[in-house]
Design brief:
The protein is α/β, with parallel strands linked by helices and 264 residues long. It is built from nine helices and eight strands. Strand 7, helix 7 and strand 8 form a beta-alpha-beta unit. The longest helix is centred in the middle third of the chain and has 14 residues. 52% of the residues are buried. About 3% of the residues have low confidence.
Length: 264
Protein backbone atom coordinates (compact mmCIF):
# COMPACT_ATOMS: atom_id res chain seq x y z
CA UNK A 1 0.00 0.00 0.00
CA UNK A 2 1.39 3.39 -1.00
CA UNK A 3 0.05 6.84 -0.18
CA UNK A 4 0.99 10.40 0.60
CA UNK A 5 0.61 11.45 4.23
CA UNK A 6 0.26 15.02 5.45
CA UNK A 7 2.31 16.37 8.34
CA UNK A 8 1.12 18.86 10.93
CA UNK A 9 2.90 21.62 8.99
CA UNK A 10 1.33 20.61 5.67
CA UNK A 11 4.13 18.66 3.95
CA UNK A 12 3.25 15.61 1.83
CA UNK A 13 5.20 12.47 2.74
CA UNK A 14 5.54 9.53 0.35
CA UNK A 15 4.84 6.41 2.43
CA UNK A 16 4.66 2.64 1.92
CA UNK A 17 3.03 -0.05 4.06
CA UNK A 18 3.98 -3.73 3.94
CA UNK A 19 1.85 -6.04 6.13
CA UNK A 20 4.75 -8.47 6.51
CA UNK A 21 4.74 -12.20 7.09
CA UNK A 22 5.08 -12.89 10.79
CA UNK A 23 6.39 -16.29 11.89
CA UNK A 24 5.29 -17.35 15.37
CA UNK A 25 7.16 -19.55 17.81
CA UNK A 26 7.10 -20.20 21.54
CA UNK A 27 10.22 -18.15 22.34
CA UNK A 28 8.75 -14.69 21.64
CA UNK A 29 5.46 -12.88 22.26
CA UNK A 30 3.01 -12.76 19.35
CA UNK A 31 4.02 -10.01 16.91
CA UNK A 32 0.89 -9.78 14.78
CA UNK A 33 0.08 -6.30 16.05
CA UNK A 34 3.66 -5.00 15.74
CA UNK A 35 4.72 -2.51 13.08
CA UNK A 36 8.19 -1.13 12.41
CA UNK A 37 8.32 2.49 11.25
CA UNK A 38 11.66 2.96 9.52
CA UNK A 39 13.34 6.38 9.34
CA UNK A 40 16.07 6.43 6.68
CA UNK A 41 19.33 8.34 6.65
CA UNK A 42 20.10 11.63 4.88
CA UNK A 43 19.84 11.37 1.05
CA UNK A 44 17.88 8.11 1.33
CA UNK A 45 14.28 7.64 0.30
CA UNK A 46 11.59 4.98 0.33
CA UNK A 47 12.65 3.57 -3.05
CA UNK A 48 16.38 3.31 -2.42
CA UNK A 49 17.61 -0.33 -2.46
CA UNK A 50 19.21 -0.10 0.99
CA UNK A 51 15.94 1.16 2.50
CA UNK A 52 13.93 -1.57 0.78
CA UNK A 53 16.39 -4.19 2.06
CA UNK A 54 15.87 -3.01 5.65
CA UNK A 55 12.11 -3.08 5.19
CA UNK A 56 12.20 -6.59 3.76
CA UNK A 57 14.27 -7.81 6.70
CA UNK A 58 11.79 -6.44 9.25
CA UNK A 59 8.76 -7.96 7.48
CA UNK A 60 9.87 -11.30 8.94
CA UNK A 61 9.02 -9.92 12.39
CA UNK A 62 6.03 -7.67 11.73
CA UNK A 63 4.49 -5.13 9.41
CA UNK A 64 6.65 -2.25 8.14
CA UNK A 65 6.01 1.39 7.28
CA UNK A 66 8.70 3.17 5.29
CA UNK A 67 8.56 6.76 4.09
CA UNK A 68 10.68 9.45 2.48
CA UNK A 69 11.56 12.37 4.70
CA UNK A 70 10.63 15.84 3.47
CA UNK A 71 12.85 16.98 0.63
CA UNK A 72 13.75 13.38 -0.22
CA UNK A 73 12.47 11.41 -3.21
CA UNK A 74 8.81 12.08 -4.03
CA UNK A 75 7.97 13.75 -0.70
CA UNK A 76 7.27 17.47 -0.63
CA UNK A 77 9.10 20.25 1.11
CA UNK A 78 12.80 20.62 1.77
CA UNK A 79 15.06 18.75 4.14
CA UNK A 80 15.87 20.44 7.44
CA UNK A 81 18.44 17.72 8.16
CA UNK A 82 16.76 16.32 11.26
CA UNK A 83 14.76 19.22 12.66
CA UNK A 84 11.19 19.25 11.31
CA UNK A 85 11.58 15.66 10.15
CA UNK A 86 10.13 14.74 13.55
CA UNK A 87 6.76 15.78 12.10
CA UNK A 88 7.26 13.40 9.17
CA UNK A 89 7.88 10.49 11.53
CA UNK A 90 4.87 11.45 13.65
CA UNK A 91 2.65 11.32 10.56
CA UNK A 92 3.99 7.87 9.67
CA UNK A 93 3.42 6.56 13.20
CA UNK A 94 -0.16 7.86 13.23
CA UNK A 95 -0.78 6.15 9.90
CA UNK A 96 0.62 2.88 11.25
CA UNK A 97 -1.68 3.02 14.26
CA UNK A 98 -4.60 3.95 12.03
CA UNK A 99 -4.01 0.73 10.11
CA UNK A 100 -4.76 -1.19 13.30
CA UNK A 101 -1.33 -1.77 14.83
CA UNK A 102 -1.30 -1.52 18.60
CA UNK A 103 2.50 -1.62 18.96
CA UNK A 104 4.90 0.65 17.09
CA UNK A 105 8.68 0.42 17.08
CA UNK A 106 10.54 3.28 15.41
CA UNK A 107 13.89 2.37 13.84
CA UNK A 108 16.10 5.17 12.55
CA UNK A 109 19.44 5.24 10.75
CA UNK A 110 21.95 8.12 10.92
CA UNK A 111 19.84 11.29 10.49
CA UNK A 112 16.81 9.08 11.00
CA UNK A 113 18.47 7.77 14.16
CA UNK A 114 18.54 11.28 15.58
CA UNK A 115 14.93 11.83 14.49
CA UNK A 116 13.59 8.74 16.28
CA UNK A 117 15.29 9.87 19.50
CA UNK A 118 13.83 13.37 19.35
CA UNK A 119 10.43 12.03 18.27
CA UNK A 120 10.27 9.66 21.25
CA UNK A 121 11.24 12.49 23.60
CA UNK A 122 8.67 14.92 22.20
CA UNK A 123 5.74 12.51 21.84
CA UNK A 124 6.45 10.27 24.84
CA UNK A 125 5.21 10.31 28.41
CA UNK A 126 7.69 13.02 29.37
CA UNK A 127 7.34 15.00 26.15
CA UNK A 128 5.67 18.22 25.17
CA UNK A 129 3.08 16.65 22.83
CA UNK A 130 0.27 14.47 24.16
CA UNK A 131 0.79 10.77 23.34
CA UNK A 132 -2.99 10.46 22.99
CA UNK A 133 -2.69 12.00 19.53
CA UNK A 134 -1.50 8.59 18.34
CA UNK A 135 2.04 9.55 17.34
CA UNK A 136 3.87 7.93 20.24
CA UNK A 137 6.12 4.92 19.92
CA UNK A 138 6.38 1.84 22.12
CA UNK A 139 10.10 1.23 21.59
CA UNK A 140 12.97 3.03 19.85
CA UNK A 141 15.99 1.76 17.90
CA UNK A 142 18.60 4.34 16.90
CA UNK A 143 21.35 3.13 14.55
CA UNK A 144 24.51 5.13 13.71
CA UNK A 145 23.09 8.35 15.15
CA UNK A 146 24.99 11.47 16.20
CA UNK A 147 24.88 12.51 19.83
CA UNK A 148 25.36 16.23 19.18
CA UNK A 149 24.86 18.71 16.35
CA UNK A 150 27.42 20.43 14.12
CA UNK A 151 29.96 17.62 14.38
CA UNK A 152 32.74 18.02 11.79
CA UNK A 153 35.38 15.69 13.20
CA UNK A 154 35.50 13.25 10.26
CA UNK A 155 36.01 13.80 6.51
CA UNK A 156 32.55 12.39 5.79
CA UNK A 157 30.92 14.93 8.09
CA UNK A 158 32.93 17.81 6.66
CA UNK A 159 31.68 16.86 3.20
CA UNK A 160 28.13 16.59 4.49
CA UNK A 161 28.32 20.06 6.01
CA UNK A 162 29.50 21.42 2.65
CA UNK A 163 26.53 19.71 0.99
CA UNK A 164 24.08 21.29 3.42
CA UNK A 165 25.51 24.77 3.95
CA UNK A 166 26.88 25.78 0.53
CA UNK A 167 24.68 26.74 -2.46
CA UNK A 168 26.76 24.56 -4.76
CA UNK A 169 26.48 21.70 -2.24
CA UNK A 170 22.70 21.98 -2.22
CA UNK A 171 22.69 21.78 -6.02
CA UNK A 172 24.65 18.53 -5.75
CA UNK A 173 22.12 17.31 -3.21
CA UNK A 174 19.18 18.15 -5.48
CA UNK A 175 20.47 16.71 -8.73
CA UNK A 176 22.90 14.08 -7.47
CA UNK A 177 20.97 12.63 -4.53
CA UNK A 178 17.31 13.64 -5.17
CA UNK A 179 17.48 15.59 -1.90
CA UNK A 180 16.20 19.16 -1.73
CA UNK A 181 17.85 20.91 1.22
CA UNK A 182 16.49 24.01 2.92
CA UNK A 183 18.80 27.01 2.68
CA UNK A 184 17.92 28.45 6.10
CA UNK A 185 19.86 27.71 9.27
CA UNK A 186 18.06 26.20 12.25
CA UNK A 187 16.22 28.85 14.27
CA UNK A 188 15.92 27.86 17.01
CA UNK A 189 18.42 25.03 17.18
CA UNK A 190 16.45 21.83 17.97
CA UNK A 191 17.04 19.72 21.04
CA UNK A 192 20.09 17.56 20.43
CA UNK A 193 19.88 13.75 20.47
CA UNK A 194 21.81 13.50 23.73
CA UNK A 195 19.44 16.01 25.32
CA UNK A 196 16.46 14.04 24.04
CA UNK A 197 17.51 10.63 25.36
CA UNK A 198 16.75 11.17 29.09
CA UNK A 199 13.20 12.21 28.18
CA UNK A 200 12.49 8.92 26.39
CA UNK A 201 12.21 6.83 29.58
CA UNK A 202 10.39 4.59 30.31
CA UNK A 203 10.07 3.74 26.61
CA UNK A 204 12.60 0.96 25.79
CA UNK A 205 15.61 2.24 23.85
CA UNK A 206 18.26 0.42 21.82
CA UNK A 207 21.34 2.26 20.53
CA UNK A 208 23.32 0.49 17.79
CA UNK A 209 26.64 1.71 16.43
CA UNK A 210 29.52 0.27 14.43
CA UNK A 211 33.10 0.47 15.63
CA UNK A 212 34.16 1.39 12.08
CA UNK A 213 31.62 4.16 11.56
CA UNK A 214 33.24 6.73 9.27
CA UNK A 215 30.83 9.52 10.22
CA UNK A 216 30.44 9.40 14.00
CA UNK A 217 33.11 7.82 16.25
CA UNK A 218 32.31 5.80 19.33
CA UNK A 219 32.07 8.74 21.69
CA UNK A 220 28.66 9.49 20.11
CA UNK A 221 26.91 6.20 21.04
CA UNK A 222 28.62 6.19 24.41
CA UNK A 223 27.30 9.67 25.15
CA UNK A 224 23.81 8.55 24.17
CA UNK A 225 24.04 5.41 26.30
CA UNK A 226 25.29 7.38 29.30
CA UNK A 227 22.39 9.81 28.92
CA UNK A 228 19.95 6.89 28.67
CA UNK A 229 21.09 5.29 31.92
CA UNK A 230 19.34 2.09 32.93
CA UNK A 231 16.50 2.38 30.41
CA UNK A 232 18.80 2.20 27.36
CA UNK A 233 20.74 -0.68 25.82
CA UNK A 234 23.92 -0.21 23.75
CA UNK A 235 25.17 -2.55 21.04
CA UNK A 236 28.64 -1.74 19.70
CA UNK A 237 28.98 -3.81 16.54
CA UNK A 238 32.49 -5.04 15.60
CA UNK A 239 33.46 -4.30 12.01
CA UNK A 240 30.29 -2.35 11.22
CA UNK A 241 30.40 0.90 9.27
CA UNK A 242 27.62 3.47 8.97
CA UNK A 243 23.83 3.17 8.85
CA UNK A 244 21.69 1.07 6.49
CA UNK A 245 24.47 0.18 4.08
CA UNK A 246 26.49 -1.37 6.91
CA UNK A 247 23.63 -3.10 8.74
CA UNK A 248 23.81 -6.75 7.70
CA UNK A 249 20.91 -9.16 7.63
CA UNK A 250 21.99 -10.83 10.88
CA UNK A 251 22.04 -7.49 12.72
CA UNK A 252 18.63 -6.52 11.33
CA UNK A 253 17.25 -9.86 12.47
CA UNK A 254 18.62 -9.26 15.99
CA UNK A 255 17.07 -5.80 16.03
CA UNK A 256 13.78 -7.35 14.95
CA UNK A 257 13.90 -9.89 17.77
CA UNK A 258 14.66 -7.11 20.27
CA UNK A 259 11.70 -5.13 18.97
CA UNK A 260 9.32 -8.06 19.28
CA UNK A 261 10.32 -8.60 22.91
CA UNK A 262 10.42 -4.91 23.91
CA UNK A 263 7.83 -3.20 21.77
CA UNK A 264 4.83 -3.59 23.97
Amino acid sequence: MRTFLHTDDGVTIDSVYDPGAVVYDNSRPPAGDLVFVVAHGFTGDVDKPHVRRVAEAFTRQGAVVTFSFRGHGASGGRSTVGDREVLDLAAAVRWARGLGHARVVTVGFSMGGSVVLRHAAIYGENGETAPARGAHTDAVVSVSAPARWYYRGTPHMRRLHWLVTRPEGRLVGRYGFRTRIHHRDWDPVPMSPVEAVPRIAPTPLLIVHGDRDGYFPLDHPRMLAQAAGDHGELWLEPGMGHAEHAAGDALLERIGHWAVSQGG
